[in-house]
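User: Quick sanity check before I run a bigger batch. Here is a single chain. Can you write out its predicted 3D structure?
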Amino acid sequence: MTLRIRTATVQDLPEMYRISVSAHVAGYATFIPESERERFDTRYVVTPEGEAKYIAKMAPRLEDPSWLLWVAEKDGRVLGYTLAQKVNDHHLLKKGMFVDPASQGEGVGSALFQASLEPITSGIIELSVITNNERAKHIYEKNGFKVVGTDPETYFGATLDVMRLTKEN
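Assistant: Done. Predicted structure follows.
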């Protein structure tokens, strides 16, 4: 069966939680400063409490029209997801993309990434990326994003670059 991108549902949330944890550990752990590693490692472990907290945070977003959540599914199994927040019809903030590490390199991330760019036909799409995450930045740059500044927030002590894509009709 082929990969399918669809809107996330409440039934997807437990698997999205597990993917989030494994993708964070596999993709971001090396960028976290030693001073923040214990806090990061404690946060990104699958636990019933963590799952409940994740579901409580994400479930309302499924009903909120300003939030856009998609999953990539193959053979009935969720392999990854992405989310974005619509500021307005011409401004989208990409808030993350997470692919099961076992499914990376299979086009899941590319399909999710392209789907997340579609809601804005004309305007600005912004995201924050760990400054030292050259692999991710290369993908974004390849798709037209440019670094436009530094995010005032950090991710567990890691500096973030703000990247922007301006789409025109």
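The two ends are 34 Å apart (CA to CA).

User: Great, the batch can go ahead then.
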